[in-house]
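User: These chains co-purify. Model them together.
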Amino acid sequence: MAKTDMEETFGGYILHNVPFPTELDEAALKGLKKMAPILIEQPYSMTYLHSYAQDSPWFAALSNGHLLVNRDPETGYTYATPRGADMYTGNETDWVEIPAEGTVHAFTVCHFGSEEFLPECPYVLIQVEFPGVDTLFLARLVGVDPNAASLDWIGMKVKGRFRRLSKFKPTDLYFYPAE
Amino acid sequence: MPAVYAVSGGVSKFAKARPDKTFPALVKEAYDYAIADLGLTHRQFLEIVDGSVASYFSDHFTRQLMAGIMAQDYLGLCPKPGHRVEGGGATGGICFQEAWKAIASGYMDVCLAYGFETMSHVATWKGNEFIALASDISFDYPVGGFYSGYYAMMVTRHMKEFGTTPEQMAHVSVKNHLNAYHNPYAQKRQKLTIADVRNSPMVAWPLTRLDICVMSDGAAATILCNEEGLAKLEKASGKRINRVLVKGIGRGTDAMRLSDRPHQSYEDFLKYNLLPNEDTAETRAYYKKLWKHGFRYPGVHSFRAGRMASREAYKNAGISDPLHQIHFVELHDAYTSSEIQTYEDMGLCRYGEGGPFAASGKAFVPGLDYGLDLPEKPVCPVNPSGGLIACGHPVGATGLMQAVFAIWQLQGTIAKHFKDPALQVPKAKRGAIHSHAGTGTYVTVSILEKED
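Assistant: Joint model of the two components:
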């Protein structure tokens, strides 16, 4: 069915006065309780200075074409997404390099997203399994038809590609079908 | 431990936007209803109440820090003790349990738990962005940045592991929207078909718009007390209060990032995560077989926090057969898929059986016509109120809304409060409420019982 409503958007004329009783007699004062609310736009923006802190080497590695993972020195338990301390032993983890090749463990196609990502829709999200790594890695998958989503994508072999111009975000590494 | 009672509650009308009231005034709407239902005036209640717990999720949505004290102030509760709690989508459930603790510890005789969220102050997609800031901002937000996407990934794995289908998920949507048809507090009161759900716009494959809850403005409040508090409330109101006992609570957590969740062995699952009702040779064999096929727990398909919260709550409430000993459940169905996953976590069925359970009819309200061909009779209605999917999800209010609806079910007063008896679960003696934060990070389960 065709849409019968228009999308509500912000932005409009700037208003400097609104209707109000010209005389505030008792009836007018009582009537104020029936007034519709005033809605005003209040812009809000800021820039944060975010530190990747102990995870920084991971982002530096991506920008240089290397994929690092964190490994517990005692048990060998390996995290695909960086974490400085192991959940089980409490040990500080070590950096290890692995090839950016794995398989799709789970996926979705986002046809909508947060405001920041709306222009990128539809995009494909995957959780990647790497051989010998105990946890998963969230990434974008390209090179598949987003309108042909299929459970068969789970188990698909994928290869990573590093962005030449780093954005210093985890999306500096993305994946495509290996076959 | 002293008995803790939940004696009254109120819920504001949930709507996409409530520009008619500020958030403190929305809370007052719920509060006024709760005290009026006890037969008390504000002045009388103020003489008795010892303090409060405030619940709201996002400082981004309010753009007002210290919003809790503004509600406390507007209600007239100053200078009594109070504090704000926050735990994502589970904020309301945590608030209820913190009020329980205030009573159970003997710190207070009467405690008010109230919560709210006003999500209409930003456009929908900006709202999704605010919510997505509850995922890891270094590793998750910049890649996916969308909770519906995270939940959709979880369910594709559930589908792959167990053969769960989008049509089974759609049963949850049809059920919850139709239940809400009889709930005047609900935001979306609709009679839908499976086809309506599947044909609605795709948001994150395979979840459509009708598989996903909406954002709301709303508030809810409940009043908890011990025996002494009950005596004071009854003395003031001059009538006997319909008692609902909070029999036991449970809470669990899991790793913030889905990708970090463990993939445990069968032995570890048995040791840490098995429910007592699953401890049979047959179910052990069933799980052994799942592990043989590559199932690992919790992975991304199951909510370990929900399982641990259930396990603890059942232990504290003496429940050994949840499906038959709990007469209804109000659970956190932010997504149809997460309702199915939660059936399994709560032991209403085994892991892997949530899809067929959803379509079986066991979780439906008796006597309602859903327009579906359901093979089995209702056993334990899930989300008789309509849940988050149909009632709305003003985050800080949601877990308390569930508590209020559960109190009314157990008091047998649904007809009075809803002006419609259709959703009253017959002979409801025990109910569970379940509150859940993003991707299953914090989960609370509380068991409420009608006192004989």
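The first helix of chain B runs from residue 23 to 37.
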